[in-house]
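anyone seen this seq b4? input:
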Amino acid sequence: MTREEAILILKKFFMMQHIDSPGLNENNVGGASVGDLEVYFEYIPKDEALNCSALIYNFREEPKPGIIEGFKEEEQFGRASTGGGFVDYQKENKGLFLTKTYTEYVEEIDFVNDIEALLGASRVWSGEVLERVAQRVFQN
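predicted toks r here
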């Protein structure tokens, strides 16, 4: 996927959410709040890939041992839909996300539907899945 293609589908997504956005800034990142949910986009030029990340949880400090592993276990065993993404802990911002990566251009409506599915899944993961993982980790 080229940067121009990424911008094109991002602009369509933002337009359908009634958000005015250039798609990506000069650092190849973008994002938005969609209702009470957050989604971030990063274009990786060397891979010609667009990473789309729906926030599950922002940690204030490094997560306790077992937390990230607990989320990955939930993913591995399919206990909740990931909306087509994968569990992605980003150490640099202490954010836990469901991330989907695009390396090929997709039709704009398919992209919008995919991101809406990713956001819907992040709601479940930030609620019931987070509670399940925390309960297991903190009981031990």
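The chain is about 40% helix and 25% strand. The longest helix spans residues 108-139. kinda curious what u guys think
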